[in-house]
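In the design runs reported in the main text, the only information available to the sequence generator was the tokenized backbone. The following block is the verbatim input for one such run; it is reproduced so that readers can re-run the procedure and compare outputs position by position.
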């Protein structure tokens, strides 16, 4: 029987584990086989406080994990399967085992949607990115591409103009899902240009991104566009599979009250699985801290 079981091994879950275990709560982190969250696919992180020279994402997550282990947090590296929040104690299935806990913190994050075209996966962190605030500074005075047609793509492009020489938004249609306001902001920026009715079919280059192959959505013609970087901005999807009894918002994210409370008493949420606005490592860590403090308070009250 654990005082708190944390679902997820990213910045939110690991920070929650530090606070919970330091408070002498018996803590289990179901980190998953691919623990660490999106930082594990990030190269140099320059905007996490305390690292003026920057730190590589995997190294940062390893340090946070060691800090949680120092205070006694336990970890299992099996994937979460399903939850039973119908009564206390709560039951969590991971791998082939069932674990029981008085409280649960849901911190499984969100995953970037990728194009899933040849050459993409192996170049993530080497010219392919899903986060302009994270990686934009690495593309100073470079010609780069943003793939997408929604508000996310417009926002990424606008952020990237602070660093890039030029930003080209490539969209597979000639109409956009972006709001009029965001679309007009992008169109009014002299650094941003648009290529429509083109679908990216391949990422070109050997060790790093050197260009993209695109297919004309109308004629089917194949052509190539040179670029030194591509930001995929077609959205994220929260990792909510297996959560039973939890309420979600209209975008599929966990619905939160007072930042970290779910609809079930004793079950809390932290990080990108409910925060579709900021989606930064530091904000996820902040939510993890809040959730752990609330768990401690909830257990004392009970």
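Verbatim output:
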């Amino acid at each position: 029987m654990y005082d708190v079981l944390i679902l997820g091994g990213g910045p939110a879950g690991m920070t929650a584990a530090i606070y919970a275990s330091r408070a002498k709560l018996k803590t289990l982190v179901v980190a998953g086989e691919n623990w660490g969250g999106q930082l594990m696919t990030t190269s140099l992180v320059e905007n996490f406080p305390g690292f003026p020279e920057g730190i590589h994402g995997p190294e940062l997550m390893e340090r946070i994990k060691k800090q949680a282990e120092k205070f006694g947090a336990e970890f299992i590296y099996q994937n979460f399967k399903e939850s039973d929040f119908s009564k206390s104690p709560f039951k969590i299935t991971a791998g082939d085992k069932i674990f029981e806990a008085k409280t649960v913190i849901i911190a499984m994050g969100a995953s970037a949607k990728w194009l899933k075209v040849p050459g993409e996966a192996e170049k993530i962190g080497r010219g392919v990115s899903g986060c302009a605030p994270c990686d934009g500074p690495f593309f100073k005075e470079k010609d780069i591409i943003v793939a997408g047609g929604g508000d996310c793509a417009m926002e990424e492009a606008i952020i990237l103009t602070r660093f890039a020489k030029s930003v080209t938004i490539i969209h597979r249609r000639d109409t956009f899902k972006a709001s009029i306001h965001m679309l007009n902001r992008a169109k009014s920026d002299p650094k941003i240009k648009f290529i429509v009715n083109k679908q990216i079919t391949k990422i070109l280059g050997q060790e790093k991104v050197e260009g993209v192959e695109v297919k004309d959505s109308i004629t089917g013609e194949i052509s190539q566009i040179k670029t030194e970087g591509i930001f995929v901005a077609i959205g994220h999807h929260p990792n909510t599979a297996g959560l039973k009894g939890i309420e979600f918002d209209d975008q599929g994210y966990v619905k939160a009250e007072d930042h970290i409370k779910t609809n079930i008493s004793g079950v809390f949420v932290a990080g990108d699985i409910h925060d579709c606005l900021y989606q930064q490592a530091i904000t996820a860590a902040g939510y993890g801290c809040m959730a752990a403090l609330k768990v401690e308070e909830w257990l004392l009250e009970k």
